[in-house]
């Protein structure tokens, strides 16, 4: 199963909800990477075998050898429902992609 590293634009509660569903998930705040540059986030994900969950397509476009899961916030429920909506998207994606290839992924958000 894919382990996740949730980037800072998403709520920390996303990682918590994923863990409750049996996933290995941490938020950048959990591992001391708040306000870290994207290269550091990618390096940490690579080192610990985690997929980066982000909406920063351009910022991560140069990264290689890491699983990148791109989700646009505008495609998620607003406000307090965002964490649950993202957790649902990632849960479905993880089950459909038990061994994801390195590189960009765009899970459906509907």
From TrEMBL:
- This chain's source organism reads Phytoactinopolyspora alkaliphila
InterPro entries per the UniProt record, alphabetical: DUF5615 (IPR041049)
- Residues of the DUF5615 domain: 4-61
The entry's protein name is: DUF5615 domain-containing protein
Tree of life domain: Bacteria
